[in-house]
Amino acid sequence: MIVIENLTQTYKSGKGIFDVSFRVEEGEVYGYLGPNGAGKTTTIRGILGQMNADQGTVRIDNMDPRVDTKDVNKILGYLPGEMTFFDNYTGTQFLDYICNMRHLEDHSYRQELTALFELDVNMKIKKMSKGMKQKLGIVSAFMHDPDILILDEPTSGLDPLMQNTFLDLILSEKAKGKTILMSSHIFEEVEKVCDRVGIIKNGRIVAIENLNDTDLEVEDLLVVTLEEENDAIVSSPLNAKKLHGNQYQISVVNNYPEVLRELSNYPVVKINVKKQTIEELFMKYYGGDDE
Amino acid sequence: MIWDLQLLNYRENRVFIFGVTGFLLIYVFSSIGMWDPDGIEVLQEMMDLLPDAMTNMLGFGNLGGSLTSYLLNYMYGFLMLLFPIIFTVMVGNRLVAKHTTSGSMIFLLTMPYSRRRIMFNQAVFFAAGLFFIFAVNVSVMILFSNIMFPGMLEIGKLLIVNLIAYGAHLILAAIAFLFSCLFDDSQTTMMFSSVVLFGNAVAFMVSNLGDGTAFLKYASVFTFIDIEYILEGSGNGLLTGVVLTLIGLLGFVGGIELFDRKSVVI
């Protein structure tokens, strides 16, 4: 379990995190979301015990990560948002290094994960693509089967197929009772795996939401292309706005039947669903501008 | 000791260890090979053709009449002072600050070891790497001298000079390590280390130019490598070397403590 209470760290610039409090229960996947510079990484630094906070506490399974670093690191797996590996290492050499440092003798889960992500570990890391490096990072974070996982933008660089593979992995880890904190920008993946999300903005937690809450109004944006330009759609009951030419954007909030009925009155040639980032979605409720 | 971390350090820094060691060995072989017990005056005359300022600065001003005097003046007036600094500046940066800057520090600090233990290992590698450079060169000096000129090298004096030189370099390495632990970026670490360490060497070399610049010797830790003094058998070179080494080790302890207490940018 991760418990953060009133964690505060102020940088010289005045930025930082202020009175951040939340907890991630055992067997829970907690989404940690916020715009760039909001304080996500600073919070993660606190969780990893790499920061001398001005005030507040972090407890991981009742241990202080700043003091009990060795013991906390035994039960923790961390996937950084941006990864730089060691110069001139192959994937195998890097994984061997992590295994040896962790005194991990059973390599079966490592091999399982390597096969799952179709990762060629014999290649030099500096020759790997971003996606391959991400897979290597995932294998290294998960292979010692840690109780607690801290994942910063875990699907970044993965192709859609591998994103799904990763999300299935998260669900299976969750089923094993793991405590997982992950930051993400993609609503679909957060929606699929997270139980709750915490939104941080300008260093302060502005919302903690239960994603199973049916009252949460989730907006989908449809980009509709008509046969020809017809601005009548803008003044229709559809919540539409013109993008350009014969393309219009329609906001759907839990009202697909009504929207589809109304759309049947127009000569639609194409409908695309525009993916919203989780930040866009929640900032609509809690944010205003970023300042 | 965390041997897997040492293996990582070795893989990432071997080029500097073997590069500097190898480069110095070339001079060891060539200097001993050049020495002629019957023709030392010729060599000194050749050196005298060069400007005094240059030979004094490089420590070639008085090569002396014995193999020991010649070798110590030739190797420890300039070569064994300046070239290990290249190793120190580069490796000092790579052991800590480069990992912090690039982000690979996370693969050190999220392992099941305390920060202090990780940094202790980095310090040990640094001190051991420097020791290797000296140990190999001194061993080759002794072996090659004994092959070429059996019994002519005063090994005790050579070892004392090397102990002092190692101690002096260890203090510089500790300074580089402190900078590496203090700063969060590689560039600042390299800048401070280069200025202080090369400045130290340059101050020593310039102090040999003449009376006008002699005061600069107080700005350099290399002043403790007083070859004339050791050749005369004066003073307690062993004690000097041990004290310098201990100061260097204390500096490393400072670096480890500093890193343990700081907020690390990851």
Describe this structure in words.
The complex is a heterodimer of chains A (291) and B (266). Chain A is built from nine helices and 13 strands. In chain A, helix 4 runs antiparallel to helix 5. Chain A is globular, with a radius of gyration of 22 Å. Chain A folds into two domains: 2-210, Rossmann fold; 219-276, 2-Layer Sandwich (Alpha-Beta Plaits). Chain A has helices at residues 40-47, 69-74, 91-101, 108-116, 130-142, 160-175, 187-193, 256-263, 278-286, and strands at 2-10, 16-24, 29-33, 55-60, 76-79, 148-152, 179-183, 196-201, 204-210, 219-226, 240-244, 247-253, 268-274. Helices cover 30% and strands 29% of the residues of chain A. With 291 residues, chain A is an alpha/beta fold. Chain B has one domain (3-261). Chain B is 76% helix and 0% strand. Chain B is elongated. The relative contact order of chain B is 0.15. The mean pLDDT of chain B is 91.
Outline of this structure?
The complex is a heterodimer of chains A (291) and B (266). Chain A is of the alpha/beta class.
Number of helices of chain B: 11
Number of strands of chain A: 13
Biggest beta-sheet profile of chain A:
6 strands, mixed
Q: What share of the residues of chain A lie within helices?
A: 25-40%
CATH topology of the largest domain in chain A: Rossmann fold
Protein topology:
The complex is a heterodimer of chains A (291) and B (266).
Chain A: E1 2-10, E2 16-24, E3 29-33, H1 40-47, E4 55-60, H2 69-74, E5 76-79, H3 91-101, H4 108-116, H5 130-142, E6 148-152, H6 160-175, E7 179-183, H7 187-193, E8 196-201, E9 204-210, E10 219-226, E11 240-244, E12 247-253, H8 256-263, E13 268-274, H9 278-286
Helix pairs in contact in A: 4-5
Chain B: H1 3-34, H2 40-48, H3 52-58, H4 67-95, H5 97-102, H6 106-109, H7 115-148, H8 155-182, H9 186-207, H10 227-232, H11 237-261
Tag the structure with descriptive keywords.
heterodimer; A: 291 residues; alpha/beta; Rossmann fold; Alpha-Beta Plaits; 2 domains; six-stranded mixed beta sheet; four-stranded antiparallel beta sheet; 9 helices; 30% helix; 29% strand; globular; B: 266 residues; mainly alpha; 11 helices; elongated
